[in-house]
Write a structure and sequence with these properties.
Layout (H helix, E strand, L loop, with lengths): L1 E5 L3 H8 L2 E8 L4 E10 L3 H14 L2 H5 L30 E15 L6 E6 L7 E3 L2
Antiparallel strand pairs: 1-4, 2-3, 3-4, 4-5, 5-6
Amino acid sequence: MDFLTDNRSEKIIEITKNPKVELCWLLPKTRSQFRLRGERIKLEKEMEEKTLHQYWMNLNPTARALWSWPAPGRKVSATDEFPTEIPENHPMLPSFELMRIEITQVELLELKATPHKRRRWRVEENWKEEYLNP
């Protein structure tokens, strides 16, 4: 699974120290929660640059602008600028980073019914579905 992120973010330092990650999505309308566990994997430099360039070119000008904003987590300054668009012909910004996660486990918690339903799939179990107590 690929994620685009700002390499000035503190999470980059944390994930460099410990590449294990867990991602969580709550889908309020369906009352479902997904948890994906895995580990960040580094691509070879040439492959990473090619992939990053493809993602950059596929972003719309508004989305590209996010990587030109001030560094995430930094205190707001009166001189900060927040561009709303970066044109297609603009070179990829150095803050634009790809995080590729190798997913090893997926859990789904469904909160619609009582009792809740919880399932898990793990790579070491050949992605066999397991039912768990919520």
